[in-house]
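re: the backbone from monday

yeah here it is again, tokenized this time
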């Protein structure tokens, strides 16, 4: 039985004042004891967030693949770990698009994060053009093939299926499309890491809100949600946590 995970991604949003939202989110997370809750925040907010809400899993949105060195402006897995992060995202579609990161980069970052004891939420997902061209399955399979470390195990590794065209757009795939892609993703994982694939959580991400969370999270193949916009405030994020507790708790 895989526990549901509801993970927030604040992207380049937030401030010290905005951390107050995490207090109510942490309280809701404690009440929803059968569900795991995590929030990835900008690098500058990791340490104050971890200090403010020690019961909540705070993470980074990215790490550099190297341990240290001449990489101006970058932050290593060891650094975010020291700041209080327990996990990191890797391969988010905004990094793939804006920073031209490849699946190989996502793999290297995931491996570096694991080496530092961080958990990893690795993102994959097709563009709208790829879906319209009938290539969504092959794109996601190829991303998984190139980005999932071959030592991935459920205790540190989570996959997030996030169709790029659904991120921040208010559009979502149908429940059948989500279930179908999750099945394809798990089958692909199985070819790579064997039986461990059955324990790996596969999240859905892309315009999840309090209004659609219960339906999406009720899909048997959906082990949780990666949430961007609706994770920024407690009034929007807590209903998603409660929906996960309702279907998985
Ligand atoms: C995301 O940033 O991973 C995401 C899913 O964003 P949103 O929920 O805003 O679509």
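seq for it, each position gets an aa:
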């Amino acid at each position: 039985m895989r526990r549901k995970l509801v993970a927030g991604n604040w992207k380049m949003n937030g401030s010290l004042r905005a951390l107050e939202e995490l207090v109510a989110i942490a309280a809701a997370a404690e009440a929803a004891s059968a569900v795991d809750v995590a929030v990835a925040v900008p690098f500058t907010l990791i340490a104050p967030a971890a200090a403010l809400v020690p019961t909540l899993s705070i993470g980074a949105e990215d790490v550099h693949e190297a341990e240290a060195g001449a990489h101006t402006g970058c932050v290593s897995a060891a650094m975010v770990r020291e700041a209080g992060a327990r996990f990191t995202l890797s391969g988010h579609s905004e990094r793939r698009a804006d920073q031209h990161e490849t699946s190989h980069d996502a793999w290297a970052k995931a491996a570096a994060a694991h080496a530092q004891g961080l958990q990893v939420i690795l993102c994959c997902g097709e563009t709208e053009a790829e879906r319209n061209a009938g290539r969504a399955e092959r794109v996601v399979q190829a991303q998984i093939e190139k980005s999932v470390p071959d030592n991935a195990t459920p205790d540190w590794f989570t996959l997030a299926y996030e169709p790029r065209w659904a991120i921040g757009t208010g559009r979502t795939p149908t429940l059948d499309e989500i279930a179908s892609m999750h099945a394809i993703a798990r089958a692909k994982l199985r070819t790579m890491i064997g039986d461990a694939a059955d324990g790996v959580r596969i999240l859905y991400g892309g315009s999840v809100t309090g209004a659609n969370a219960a339906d999406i999270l009720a899909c048997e193949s959906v082990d949780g949600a990666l949430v961007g916009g609706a994770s920024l405030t407690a009034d929007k994020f807590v209903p998603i946590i409660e929906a996960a507790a309702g279907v998985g708790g």
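The two ends are 11 Å apart (CA to CA). The mean pLDDT is 97.
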